[in-house]
Amino acid sequence: MTVLERMQGPTRLNNTSLYDWDALVREDRVHRLIYTDPAVFDAEMNHIFGGTWVYLAHESQIPNPNDFVTGKLGLRPLIITRDSEGVIRALFNRCTHRGTTLCRWAKGNTRSFQCPYHGWNFLNTGKLRGVPWPEGYAENLVRDPKYNLAQLPRIESYRGFIFGTLNVSAAPIEKHLGPIKKPIDEWLDRNPGGKITVCEANRFKYKGNWKLAYDNSGDGYHVIYSHQSLLETENRFKDENAAKGMAYYKREPDEQPMYIQYMGNGHHFKDKRPNLEKRAGGLWAIESLHPGMEHVAEKLRSRLGERAESILDLAGSEPVNINVFPNLSLLGNHIQVFQPVSFEETDAIWYGTKIDDVDGTLGADVLKDINALRMRTQEGFPNFGEVDDITNFEQIQRGLRCTEDEWIYMNRGLGIPGRIRTLDDGTIKGPATDELFMREYIREWKRLMKAEPDIAIRREP
Amino acid sequence: MTIQTNHDPSRFSYYVTDDFYSELVNDFSDWETEERTISDPVERDRFRRLVEREARILDNLLFEDWLKLFAPECAYWVPSTPEAGDPRHEIAVMFDDRRRLEDRVFRLRTGYAWSQAPSSRTSRLVANVEVFESQTHEQRMVRSNFVISEFWDSEIRVLAGWTGHRFRRIEGTWKISAKQVNLLNCDQCIRNPSIIL
Q1: Burial tier of A23 (Cβ tally within 10 Å: 0-12, 13-18, 19+)
Q2: How many CB pairs under 8 A join A and B?
């Protein structure tokens, strides 16, 4: 049985009275304080990174019984474990005795964790197994659930993506994801077998608020300016058959078939796939140049003929940005995670993915080649694009120190008749450079900041 | 157009094959053994001067000169794990062939690389240079430690670690055929990793 605990006493924050959120978040703009005030950040760690579903890890990082990775829910250190029965949990990485960080490793495989401070020992279910010299305690500690590790009361996976929340009243993850599930499914199912495995990452840190990355995650307006160095580099050979990468942004991006779509609950979707030629190899044709690509393409074409084109597409950067509020972004073949550190510091981790090919559709040789190539295609944008993005995020954070200049605008597309459509399923669709997704997600942010989440922790009985 | 032109490694990437990766992984895992240490001071000094010269060229932002230190077919590899791993199976912080190295330099020269506008100023210390024989003829493996002090955006930060160079003698000249840069914090979040290491 589940043992739930709710916070009690004077430590409970009453964040709803911190600000009049309606004054800070307007229809067309937001106040700088939502990026610069440490108190707002502290409240977010409760209302957002506590009050709604947060992406924690991918199941492929803990494939075997007793595997674990360490992670975070907001600032709370976690150990995400798969116990010997296969059950996934997110334990607070905090010894119940004195609060010590229990596990100091990024990943591993173990049935139990022993605290390096006084030697308390916990199973990977969170249950206290034993303590040194128990006769020194008046009670039998292992029989009292309060000494078992705290853990998130809700953990649910969607197709390998592990989400967790402290909000015991949160809707089931599938309902919470809602319409964004469809692009997630398509993103997975384009790979034979519909499964991917995480394989290390490009890891970035920037001195800026986490929302600056989420604001940017669906931004089609910045591409040709922020990424001009990337676009010029990708297209430096004039004898290539096709304009590479995101060059389509150069030609009246709002007239292109690509679009931005708000999917509810803070999630949004930038779909650039309609810009591609609808044929096998259509994605590969615009893939920028990467190590080994001619070799693999030549090899697969000579071996597989026309079938090679659709396989090469698997190494191509899928032209979507699937943004799951507040901290997950699937783009290209990456799983990007936004990890807040402070009001002015954020980690952005671009996990690479490789194809599992569980059904053996590709065969071992082809799989090896296409995955090796997929590693190289995934290193392109982080190296030549993300570095410029995070530089701009830092420079926004600096600009926001101008306290008297209070507002940041997100009004592109607002008030233009016929530009934005609400569809039957409630999603909202607009042209590629529209800021509608910012306006909508920040409205959801405001709703969460006003609400009092039903937060609790759980312990093994 | 001749076949040779078609395979110009500055333009096309036909040589990054499974064998190329295997050799790379093998060379950078099997080289550092005591038996292969070269103690001849003249030869050691030759390679020490090469890595020092490379550091100076990079400190001076002479990227085009830096490219000339590399063999036509080459790799520049910054692993994302302390054990380096196999770049066929895991994402690297950076993994460039000749063309992408030239991309890297091209990008920095566009004037629109905001992460390097203005450019970082760097001061590189290279030390503990050791030279090793290789199983391959006309090839040397060189291991060195580095400390890069980088001034960027009003701060100085430090990048540290060790470098493995694979040198090959091509037409009488020792060229870098692979450079592996092992950052101490390669598996951690790094702020603006945009300089050439």
Answers
A1: exposed
A2: 140
Q: Give the mutation candidate from B6, B80, B107 for the A interface (greatest A CB count, under 10 A).
A: B107
Is residue A223 predicted with pLDDT exceeding 80? yes
> Cα dist. A208→A338, A351, A411 in Å?
12, 21, 22
Residue B2, pLDDT score: 45
**CB of A453 closer than 8 Å to CB of A50:** yes
For residue B1, the model assigns a pLDDT of 41
Please answer yes or no on whether B80 and A200 come within 8 Å at the CB atom. yes
- Full-prediction pTM beyond 0.90? yes
Radius of gyration of chain A (CA): 24
**Minimum-distance CB partner of A379 among B89, B95, B190:** B95
Query: Across all residues in chain A, what is the average pLDDT?
Result: 96
Residue type, A78: L
Chain-chain contact of A199 with B107 (C-beta, under 8 angstroms):
no
Q: How far is B185 from chain A (nearest CA, A)?
A: 10
pLDDT tens-digit series, residues A108-153 = 999 999 999 999 999 999 999 999 999 999 999 999 999 999 999 9
- Does one domain contain both A132 and A199? no
The residues of chain B scoring below 70 in pLDDT are 1-5
pLDDT in tens, A55-73: 999 999 999 999 999 999 9
Q: Is the pLDDT of residue A16 over 80?
A: no
Topology classification of domain B35-183: Nuclear Transport Factor 2; Chain: A, (3.10.450)
Cα separation, A180 vs B45, in Å, equals 60
Q: DSSP letter at A384?
A: I
| Residue-range domain boundaries for chain B | 35-183
A183 and A153 within one domain: no
* Interface contact flag, A383 B92, Cβ < 8 Å: no
What local confidence, expressed as pLDDT, does residue A2 receive?
66
Chain A positions touching B191 (Cβ under 8 A) are 204-207, 390
Nearest to A372 among B88, B113, B153 (CB): B88
Q: Tokens at residue A322, please?
A: 């699937």
Are B91 and A293 within 8 A, CB to CB? no
Q: Which amino acid is at B21?
A: Y
Q: Within this chain, do residues A322 and A216 fall inside the same structural domain, yes or no?
A: yes
Of the residues A115, A135, A166, which one is the last residue of a structural domain?
A: A166
Q: What is the pLDDT of residues A315-374, one digit of tens each?
A: 999 999 999 999 999 999 999 999 999 999 999 999 999 999 999 999 999 999 999 999
Residue B18 near residue A298 (C-beta atoms within 8 A): no
